[in-house]
Amino acid sequence: MFDNIEELRSEDNYQKHEATLKTIRNEIEKLRSDLDDLKHKATAESISSLDLSVTQNVFSVETVENNALWRWLFENKQFKSWKVPHQSASPRFFGLSGAPGAGKTFLATTVVRHFQTQETSQAVGVAFVHFDYRDRKSQTFENVMKRLIQQLTKSLERDSGDSSLLHMKNESARSRPQVEHFLEILNVVTESFSDVRIVIDALDECDQTMRKIFVKMLQSLPAKYRIFCTSRYLGEVDEIYSEWSWLDVSATKEYVRSYVELQVKSSPRLQNYFHAARDLEGIICDQVTKNSQGLLALANSSVCFLEATTSVKSLRKAIIVLPTHIKELYDHTMTRIRKQPANQSRLAITILSWLTLATKTLTVGVINNAIAAMDLEIGDTSLDKDSFVDEAEMINVCCGLVRIDQETKVIRFAHGTIERFFYDEWQRTIPNAAKDILNARDNILLCDSTVDRAKAELMDCIPSDPVPSEDSK
Predict the structure, then answer these.
(1) Three-point CA angle 455, 461, 462, nearest 5°
(2) Terminal C-alpha separation, the chain
(3) 79, 116, 218, 250 — which has fewest CB within 10 A?
(4) Where is average pLDDT lowest: 29-33, 170-174, 298-302, 365-369?
(5) Is the pTM of this model over 0.70?
Protein backbone atom coordinates (compact mmCIF):
# COMPACT_ATOMS: atom_id res chain seq x y z
CA MET A 1 0.00 0.00 0.00
CA PHE A 2 2.65 2.47 1.04
CA ASP A 3 4.88 1.50 -1.95
CA ASN A 4 1.94 2.28 -4.23
CA ILE A 5 1.50 5.67 -2.61
CA GLU A 6 5.16 6.50 -3.15
CA GLU A 7 4.89 5.48 -6.81
CA LEU A 8 1.90 7.75 -7.26
CA ARG A 9 3.78 10.65 -5.75
CA SER A 10 6.73 10.10 -8.06
CA GLU A 11 4.67 9.99 -11.26
CA ASP A 12 4.38 12.89 -13.68
CA ASN A 13 0.71 13.33 -12.91
CA TYR A 14 1.45 14.21 -9.28
CA GLN A 15 -0.30 17.57 -9.57
CA LYS A 16 -3.36 15.94 -11.07
CA HIS A 17 -3.34 13.45 -8.20
CA GLU A 18 -3.13 16.29 -5.69
CA ALA A 19 -6.08 17.98 -7.39
CA THR A 20 -8.06 14.75 -7.03
CA LEU A 21 -7.21 14.59 -3.35
CA LYS A 22 -8.35 18.19 -2.94
CA THR A 23 -11.66 17.30 -4.59
CA ILE A 24 -12.06 14.35 -2.25
CA ARG A 25 -11.34 16.51 0.78
CA ASN A 26 -13.88 19.08 -0.39
CA GLU A 27 -16.49 16.34 -0.80
CA ILE A 28 -15.72 15.07 2.69
CA GLU A 29 -16.08 18.57 4.13
CA LYS A 30 -19.41 18.92 2.36
CA LEU A 31 -20.58 15.61 3.78
CA ARG A 32 -19.39 16.69 7.23
CA SER A 33 -21.46 19.84 6.83
CA ASP A 34 -24.46 17.74 5.81
CA LEU A 35 -23.93 15.53 8.85
CA ASP A 36 -23.85 18.62 11.08
CA ASP A 37 -27.13 19.77 9.53
CA LEU A 38 -28.71 16.40 10.25
CA LYS A 39 -27.44 16.48 13.82
CA HIS A 40 -28.85 19.97 14.28
CA LYS A 41 -32.28 18.91 13.02
CA ALA A 42 -32.33 15.61 14.91
CA THR A 43 -34.45 15.35 18.02
CA ALA A 44 -32.80 15.29 21.41
CA GLU A 45 -33.70 11.62 21.75
CA SER A 46 -30.76 10.60 19.60
CA ILE A 47 -28.51 13.03 21.46
CA SER A 48 -29.49 11.82 24.90
CA SER A 49 -29.09 8.10 24.21
CA LEU A 50 -25.37 8.14 25.07
CA ASP A 51 -26.00 9.60 28.51
CA LEU A 52 -28.77 7.12 29.21
CA SER A 53 -26.59 4.20 28.16
CA VAL A 54 -24.37 4.86 31.17
CA THR A 55 -27.26 3.88 33.45
CA GLN A 56 -27.86 0.56 31.74
CA ASN A 57 -26.36 -2.46 33.46
CA VAL A 58 -27.15 -6.06 34.29
CA PHE A 59 -27.91 -5.43 37.96
CA SER A 60 -31.52 -5.89 39.02
CA VAL A 61 -33.02 -3.28 41.32
CA GLU A 62 -33.32 -5.83 44.10
CA THR A 63 -29.65 -6.83 43.75
CA VAL A 64 -28.45 -3.24 43.79
CA GLU A 65 -30.44 -2.48 46.92
CA ASN A 66 -28.55 -5.26 48.73
CA ASN A 67 -25.26 -3.54 47.98
CA ALA A 68 -23.55 -1.99 51.02
CA LEU A 69 -22.53 1.17 49.17
CA TRP A 70 -26.11 1.67 48.00
CA ARG A 71 -27.36 1.26 51.56
CA TRP A 72 -24.71 3.70 52.80
CA LEU A 73 -26.08 6.42 50.53
CA PHE A 74 -29.79 5.73 50.78
CA GLU A 75 -29.68 5.46 54.57
CA ASN A 76 -27.70 8.69 54.94
CA LYS A 77 -29.70 11.45 56.67
CA GLN A 78 -28.54 14.17 54.26
CA PHE A 79 -29.53 12.12 51.23
CA LYS A 80 -32.86 11.13 52.77
CA SER A 81 -33.59 14.79 53.37
CA TRP A 82 -32.74 15.65 49.75
CA LYS A 83 -34.86 12.76 48.45
CA VAL A 84 -38.04 13.95 50.16
CA PRO A 85 -39.77 16.57 47.98
CA HIS A 86 -41.57 19.72 48.99
CA GLN A 87 -39.74 20.31 52.28
CA SER A 88 -38.31 23.78 52.55
CA ALA A 89 -35.74 22.65 55.12
CA SER A 90 -34.29 19.92 52.88
CA PRO A 91 -31.41 20.78 50.51
CA ARG A 92 -32.21 21.27 46.84
CA PHE A 93 -28.66 20.38 45.83
CA PHE A 94 -26.87 17.23 46.94
CA GLY A 95 -23.36 16.32 45.88
CA LEU A 96 -21.03 13.33 46.17
CA SER A 97 -17.30 13.94 46.01
CA GLY A 98 -14.47 11.45 46.02
CA ALA A 99 -11.34 10.14 44.40
CA PRO A 100 -11.40 8.36 41.01
CA GLY A 101 -12.69 4.82 41.40
CA ALA A 102 -14.49 5.45 44.69
CA GLY A 103 -17.92 4.53 43.25
CA LYS A 104 -19.46 7.89 42.30
CA THR A 105 -20.81 6.82 38.92
CA PHE A 106 -22.20 3.60 40.38
CA LEU A 107 -24.12 5.63 42.95
CA ALA A 108 -25.30 8.21 40.40
CA THR A 109 -26.75 5.50 38.18
CA THR A 110 -28.46 3.79 41.12
CA VAL A 111 -30.10 7.11 42.03
CA VAL A 112 -31.41 7.40 38.46
CA ARG A 113 -32.66 3.82 38.52
CA HIS A 114 -34.36 4.44 41.88
CA PHE A 115 -36.39 7.36 40.59
CA GLN A 116 -37.15 5.57 37.32
CA THR A 117 -38.36 2.37 38.98
CA GLN A 118 -39.50 3.30 42.49
CA GLU A 119 -40.78 6.85 42.07
CA THR A 120 -43.18 6.05 39.23
CA SER A 121 -45.61 8.91 39.77
CA GLN A 122 -46.41 10.89 36.61
CA ALA A 123 -45.77 14.00 38.68
CA VAL A 124 -42.04 13.19 38.99
CA GLY A 125 -39.66 14.00 36.15
CA VAL A 126 -36.17 12.43 35.97
CA ALA A 127 -33.21 13.40 33.76
CA PHE A 128 -29.58 12.31 33.72
CA VAL A 129 -26.39 13.85 32.32
CA HIS A 130 -23.00 12.11 32.31
CA PHE A 131 -20.05 14.35 31.44
CA ASP A 132 -16.98 12.92 29.71
CA TYR A 133 -13.84 14.98 29.06
CA ARG A 134 -13.47 13.20 25.69
CA ASP A 135 -16.88 14.52 24.56
CA ARG A 136 -16.35 18.15 25.52
CA LYS A 137 -16.78 19.40 21.96
CA SER A 138 -20.21 17.82 21.68
CA GLN A 139 -21.27 18.46 25.28
CA THR A 140 -22.16 22.08 24.71
CA PHE A 141 -24.73 23.90 26.80
CA GLU A 142 -27.20 23.56 23.93
CA ASN A 143 -26.75 19.80 23.58
CA VAL A 144 -26.85 19.14 27.33
CA MET A 145 -30.08 21.12 27.64
CA LYS A 146 -31.56 19.17 24.73
CA ARG A 147 -30.70 15.95 26.57
CA LEU A 148 -32.43 17.11 29.72
CA ILE A 149 -35.50 18.37 27.88
CA GLN A 150 -35.88 15.23 25.81
CA GLN A 151 -35.65 12.94 28.84
CA LEU A 152 -38.21 15.00 30.74
CA THR A 153 -40.46 15.09 27.68
CA LYS A 154 -40.20 11.31 27.41
CA SER A 155 -41.20 11.05 31.06
CA LEU A 156 -44.48 12.71 30.13
CA GLU A 157 -44.99 10.24 27.27
CA ARG A 158 -45.73 13.13 24.95
CA ASP A 159 -45.52 12.74 21.21
CA SER A 160 -42.61 13.98 19.16
CA GLY A 161 -44.36 17.28 18.54
CA ASP A 162 -42.89 18.62 21.76
CA SER A 163 -39.39 18.08 20.37
CA SER A 164 -40.04 20.96 17.99
CA LEU A 165 -39.52 23.23 20.97
CA LEU A 166 -35.83 22.48 20.64
CA HIS A 167 -35.61 24.18 17.25
CA MET A 168 -38.15 26.94 17.53
CA LYS A 169 -36.08 30.14 17.62
CA ASN A 170 -33.56 31.42 15.08
CA GLU A 171 -33.28 28.02 13.38
CA SER A 172 -32.90 29.55 9.95
CA ALA A 173 -29.87 31.51 11.13
CA ARG A 174 -28.54 28.50 13.07
CA SER A 175 -27.76 30.81 15.98
CA ARG A 176 -27.01 29.19 19.33
CA PRO A 177 -30.01 29.49 21.68
CA GLN A 178 -29.37 31.46 24.85
CA VAL A 179 -29.73 30.28 28.46
CA GLU A 180 -33.06 32.07 28.80
CA HIS A 181 -34.38 30.34 25.71
CA PHE A 182 -33.72 26.86 27.09
CA LEU A 183 -35.00 27.79 30.53
CA GLU A 184 -38.25 28.82 28.89
CA ILE A 185 -38.48 25.46 27.09
CA LEU A 186 -37.56 23.57 30.25
CA ASN A 187 -40.30 25.30 32.22
CA VAL A 188 -42.88 24.53 29.53
CA VAL A 189 -41.93 20.85 29.44
CA THR A 190 -41.96 20.46 33.23
CA GLU A 191 -45.00 22.56 34.05
CA SER A 192 -47.10 19.48 34.90
CA PHE A 193 -44.39 18.04 37.17
CA SER A 194 -44.57 18.73 40.87
CA ASP A 195 -41.09 17.26 41.40
CA VAL A 196 -38.10 17.24 39.00
CA ARG A 197 -34.86 15.33 39.69
CA ILE A 198 -31.74 16.03 37.64
CA VAL A 199 -28.77 13.69 38.20
CA ILE A 200 -25.37 14.93 37.00
CA ASP A 201 -22.41 12.57 36.94
CA ALA A 202 -18.75 13.66 36.68
CA LEU A 203 -19.31 17.42 36.68
CA ASP A 204 -15.56 17.88 37.02
CA GLU A 205 -15.14 16.52 33.46
CA CYS A 206 -17.30 19.28 32.01
CA ASP A 207 -15.51 22.09 30.17
CA GLN A 208 -14.76 24.92 32.61
CA THR A 209 -16.56 27.66 30.67
CA MET A 210 -19.54 25.43 29.96
CA ARG A 211 -19.60 24.37 33.63
CA LYS A 212 -20.01 27.96 34.83
CA ILE A 213 -22.93 28.54 32.47
CA PHE A 214 -24.55 25.24 33.39
CA VAL A 215 -24.15 25.79 37.13
CA LYS A 216 -25.64 29.26 36.88
CA MET A 217 -28.63 27.80 35.06
CA LEU A 218 -29.10 25.10 37.71
CA GLN A 219 -29.05 27.65 40.49
CA SER A 220 -31.77 29.66 38.76
CA LEU A 221 -34.23 26.76 38.52
CA PRO A 222 -37.47 26.82 40.55
CA ALA A 223 -37.73 25.14 43.95
CA LYS A 224 -39.35 21.97 42.57
CA TYR A 225 -36.04 21.01 40.95
CA ARG A 226 -33.70 18.82 43.02
CA ILE A 227 -30.15 18.33 41.75
CA PHE A 228 -27.90 15.33 42.48
CA CYS A 229 -24.28 15.77 41.43
CA THR A 230 -21.03 13.77 41.55
CA SER A 231 -17.54 15.12 41.06
CA ARG A 232 -13.94 14.37 41.83
CA TYR A 233 -12.18 16.74 44.22
CA LEU A 234 -11.75 19.99 42.35
CA GLY A 235 -11.19 23.38 43.97
CA GLU A 236 -13.40 25.29 41.57
CA VAL A 237 -16.30 22.87 41.99
CA ASP A 238 -15.95 22.94 45.76
CA GLU A 239 -16.09 26.74 45.69
CA ILE A 240 -19.12 26.86 43.39
CA TYR A 241 -21.03 24.41 45.53
CA SER A 242 -19.88 25.57 48.94
CA GLU A 243 -23.50 26.03 50.05
CA TRP A 244 -24.65 22.64 48.79
CA SER A 245 -25.04 19.52 50.87
CA TRP A 246 -21.90 17.46 50.16
CA LEU A 247 -21.03 13.90 51.13
CA ASP A 248 -17.64 12.29 50.69
CA VAL A 249 -17.55 8.84 49.07
CA SER A 250 -15.05 6.55 50.71
CA ALA A 251 -15.38 2.86 49.91
CA THR A 252 -14.74 0.78 53.01
CA LYS A 253 -13.84 -2.90 52.88
CA GLU A 254 -17.48 -3.79 53.51
CA TYR A 255 -18.62 -1.63 50.58
CA VAL A 256 -16.02 -3.11 48.27
CA ARG A 257 -16.84 -6.66 49.30
CA SER A 258 -20.53 -6.06 48.70
CA TYR A 259 -19.77 -4.49 45.31
CA VAL A 260 -17.55 -7.42 44.29
CA GLU A 261 -20.25 -9.91 45.26
CA LEU A 262 -22.70 -7.93 43.15
CA GLN A 263 -20.35 -8.01 40.15
CA VAL A 264 -19.57 -11.70 40.52
CA LYS A 265 -23.22 -12.74 40.84
CA SER A 266 -24.01 -10.69 37.72
CA SER A 267 -21.37 -12.41 35.59
CA PRO A 268 -22.75 -15.39 33.59
CA ARG A 269 -19.25 -16.59 32.72
CA LEU A 270 -18.02 -16.66 36.33
CA GLN A 271 -21.25 -18.24 37.51
CA ASN A 272 -20.74 -20.97 34.92
CA TYR A 273 -17.27 -21.68 36.33
CA PHE A 274 -18.74 -22.01 39.82
CA HIS A 275 -20.83 -25.00 38.74
CA ALA A 276 -17.58 -26.93 38.32
CA ALA A 277 -15.68 -25.30 41.21
CA ARG A 278 -17.95 -24.00 43.97
CA ASP A 279 -15.06 -22.78 46.10
CA LEU A 280 -14.04 -20.18 43.51
CA GLU A 281 -16.80 -17.67 44.25
CA GLY A 282 -15.65 -17.08 47.83
CA ILE A 283 -11.98 -17.10 46.81
CA ILE A 284 -12.59 -14.48 44.12
CA CYS A 285 -14.58 -12.20 46.43
CA ASP A 286 -11.90 -12.45 49.14
CA GLN A 287 -8.95 -11.85 46.82
CA VAL A 288 -10.48 -9.04 44.75
CA THR A 289 -11.63 -7.23 47.89
CA LYS A 290 -8.18 -7.53 49.41
CA ASN A 291 -6.35 -6.37 46.29
CA SER A 292 -8.64 -3.44 45.45
CA GLN A 293 -7.47 -1.32 48.42
CA GLY A 294 -10.80 0.50 48.71
CA LEU A 295 -11.16 1.33 45.00
CA LEU A 296 -14.33 0.13 43.32
CA ALA A 297 -12.68 0.85 39.97
CA LEU A 298 -9.89 -1.62 40.70
CA ALA A 299 -12.42 -4.16 42.00
CA ASN A 300 -14.53 -3.77 38.85
CA SER A 301 -11.52 -4.09 36.54
CA SER A 302 -10.26 -7.11 38.47
CA VAL A 303 -13.55 -8.91 37.95
CA CYS A 304 -13.42 -8.04 34.23
CA PHE A 305 -9.86 -9.37 34.20
CA LEU A 306 -11.05 -12.67 35.65
CA GLU A 307 -14.00 -12.84 33.25
CA ALA A 308 -11.58 -12.88 30.33
CA THR A 309 -10.25 -16.30 31.35
CA THR A 310 -11.20 -19.35 29.29
CA SER A 311 -11.28 -22.20 31.81
CA VAL A 312 -11.42 -22.98 35.52
CA LYS A 313 -7.69 -23.70 35.44
CA SER A 314 -6.84 -20.34 33.82
CA LEU A 315 -9.21 -18.62 36.27
CA ARG A 316 -7.35 -20.09 39.27
CA LYS A 317 -4.05 -18.90 37.81
CA ALA A 318 -5.47 -15.42 37.16
CA ILE A 319 -6.64 -15.13 40.78
CA ILE A 320 -3.10 -15.78 42.01
CA VAL A 321 -1.57 -13.03 39.83
CA LEU A 322 -4.27 -10.40 40.37
CA PRO A 323 -2.52 -6.98 40.36
CA THR A 324 -2.90 -4.62 43.31
CA HIS A 325 -2.68 -1.34 41.39
CA ILE A 326 -4.75 0.04 38.51
CA LYS A 327 -1.77 0.65 36.22
CA GLU A 328 -0.31 -2.78 36.96
CA LEU A 329 -3.67 -4.39 36.21
CA TYR A 330 -4.05 -2.74 32.81
CA ASP A 331 -0.43 -3.40 31.89
CA HIS A 332 -1.01 -7.05 32.73
CA THR A 333 -4.13 -7.08 30.56
CA MET A 334 -2.20 -5.55 27.64
CA THR A 335 0.36 -8.35 27.96
CA ARG A 336 -2.45 -10.89 27.65
CA ILE A 337 -3.81 -9.08 24.60
CA ARG A 338 -0.43 -9.17 22.86
CA LYS A 339 -0.08 -12.91 23.56
CA GLN A 340 -3.27 -13.66 21.60
CA PRO A 341 -3.05 -14.92 17.99
CA ALA A 342 -1.78 -12.16 15.68
CA ASN A 343 -5.17 -11.34 14.10
CA GLN A 344 -6.92 -11.11 17.45
CA SER A 345 -4.16 -9.00 18.97
CA ARG A 346 -4.21 -6.66 15.97
CA LEU A 347 -7.98 -6.29 16.22
CA ALA A 348 -7.78 -5.45 19.93
CA ILE A 349 -5.04 -2.87 19.34
CA THR A 350 -7.11 -1.28 16.56
CA ILE A 351 -10.18 -1.00 18.81
CA LEU A 352 -8.19 0.41 21.74
CA SER A 353 -6.40 2.88 19.47
CA TRP A 354 -9.62 4.32 18.08
CA LEU A 355 -11.31 4.47 21.48
CA THR A 356 -8.29 6.35 22.84
CA LEU A 357 -7.72 8.91 20.10
CA ALA A 358 -11.06 9.38 18.31
CA THR A 359 -12.64 12.80 18.73
CA LYS A 360 -16.14 11.46 19.26
CA THR A 361 -17.98 8.67 21.01
CA LEU A 362 -17.85 5.59 18.79
CA THR A 363 -20.41 2.98 17.84
CA VAL A 364 -19.80 -0.59 16.74
CA GLY A 365 -20.55 0.52 13.18
CA VAL A 366 -17.88 3.21 13.21
CA ILE A 367 -15.32 0.80 14.68
CA ASN A 368 -16.12 -1.68 11.91
CA ASN A 369 -15.69 1.07 9.34
CA ALA A 370 -12.29 1.81 10.88
CA ILE A 371 -11.32 -1.85 10.58
CA ALA A 372 -12.47 -1.88 6.95
CA ALA A 373 -10.50 1.31 6.25
CA MET A 374 -7.33 -0.50 7.26
CA ASP A 375 -7.98 -2.98 4.42
CA LEU A 376 -8.78 -0.45 1.68
CA GLU A 377 -6.81 -0.57 -1.54
CA ILE A 378 -6.46 1.94 -4.37
CA GLY A 379 -9.46 1.53 -6.64
CA ASP A 380 -11.88 0.51 -3.90
CA THR A 381 -15.03 2.60 -3.97
CA SER A 382 -16.47 1.80 -0.54
CA LEU A 383 -15.73 0.22 2.79
CA ASP A 384 -15.98 -3.56 2.48
CA LYS A 385 -18.45 -5.09 4.92
CA ASP A 386 -16.62 -8.38 4.60
CA SER A 387 -14.02 -6.85 6.93
CA PHE A 388 -16.57 -6.26 9.69
CA VAL A 389 -16.16 -8.04 13.03
CA ASP A 390 -18.81 -9.51 15.33
CA GLU A 391 -19.55 -7.59 18.55
CA ALA A 392 -18.75 -10.58 20.75
CA GLU A 393 -15.34 -10.88 19.11
CA MET A 394 -14.62 -7.21 19.85
CA ILE A 395 -15.35 -7.78 23.52
CA ASN A 396 -13.39 -11.02 23.74
CA VAL A 397 -10.17 -9.83 22.10
CA CYS A 398 -10.03 -6.77 24.37
CA CYS A 399 -10.01 -8.97 27.49
CA GLY A 400 -12.61 -7.02 29.45
CA LEU A 401 -11.28 -3.52 28.69
CA VAL A 402 -14.29 -2.47 26.59
CA ARG A 403 -18.04 -2.88 26.70
CA ILE A 404 -20.88 -2.39 24.22
CA ASP A 405 -24.26 -0.93 25.09
CA GLN A 406 -26.80 -3.19 23.39
CA GLU A 407 -29.41 -0.46 23.03
CA THR A 408 -27.27 2.29 21.51
CA LYS A 409 -24.44 0.09 20.13
CA VAL A 410 -21.96 2.53 21.66
CA ILE A 411 -18.59 0.92 22.36
CA ARG A 412 -16.52 2.42 25.14
CA PHE A 413 -13.95 1.55 27.78
CA ALA A 414 -15.42 -0.57 30.56
CA HIS A 415 -14.48 2.00 33.20
CA GLY A 416 -13.29 5.59 33.35
CA THR A 417 -9.98 4.53 34.86
CA ILE A 418 -9.28 2.38 31.79
CA GLU A 419 -10.00 5.34 29.56
CA ARG A 420 -7.68 7.54 31.61
CA PHE A 421 -4.96 4.88 31.58
CA PHE A 422 -4.87 4.69 27.79
CA TYR A 423 -5.25 8.44 27.42
CA ASP A 424 -2.15 8.93 29.57
CA GLU A 425 -0.18 5.86 28.52
CA TRP A 426 -1.08 5.26 24.86
CA GLN A 427 2.35 6.23 23.53
CA ARG A 428 3.80 3.44 25.66
CA THR A 429 1.05 0.80 25.46
CA ILE A 430 -0.19 1.32 21.88
CA PRO A 431 2.67 3.33 20.32
CA ASN A 432 1.47 2.92 16.71
CA ALA A 433 -2.05 4.16 17.43
CA ALA A 434 -1.66 7.61 15.82
CA LYS A 435 0.13 6.16 12.79
CA ASP A 436 -2.57 3.52 12.26
CA ILE A 437 -5.37 6.06 12.45
CA LEU A 438 -3.64 8.41 10.02
CA ASN A 439 -3.01 5.47 7.69
CA ALA A 440 -6.74 4.73 7.75
CA ARG A 441 -7.39 8.36 6.83
CA ASP A 442 -4.91 8.18 3.93
CA ASN A 443 -6.48 4.94 2.74
CA ILE A 444 -9.89 6.62 2.61
CA LEU A 445 -8.53 9.64 0.73
CA LEU A 446 -6.67 7.54 -1.81
CA CYS A 447 -9.13 4.71 -2.39
CA ASP A 448 -11.45 6.58 -4.79
CA SER A 449 -12.95 9.98 -5.44
CA THR A 450 -16.33 8.66 -4.33
CA VAL A 451 -17.12 9.57 -0.75
CA ASP A 452 -20.04 7.87 0.99
CA ARG A 453 -21.68 8.50 4.34
CA ALA A 454 -19.75 5.76 6.14
CA LYS A 455 -16.41 7.24 5.09
CA ALA A 456 -17.50 10.74 6.10
CA GLU A 457 -18.64 9.58 9.53
CA LEU A 458 -15.33 7.82 10.05
CA MET A 459 -13.32 10.83 8.91
CA ASP A 460 -15.31 12.97 11.33
CA CYS A 461 -13.89 10.91 14.22
CA ILE A 462 -10.26 11.29 13.17
CA PRO A 463 -8.39 14.12 14.90
CA SER A 464 -6.30 16.41 12.70
CA ASP A 465 -3.48 15.89 15.18
CA PRO A 466 -4.07 12.54 16.93
CA VAL A 467 -2.12 13.48 20.04
CA PRO A 468 -4.23 14.52 23.08
CA SER A 469 -3.39 17.95 24.42
CA GLU A 470 -2.75 18.60 28.09
CA ASP A 471 -5.83 20.86 28.23
CA SER A 472 -8.12 17.99 27.32
CA LYS A 473 -6.88 15.67 30.04
Answers:
(1) 90
(2) 35
(3) 250
(4) 170-174
(5) no
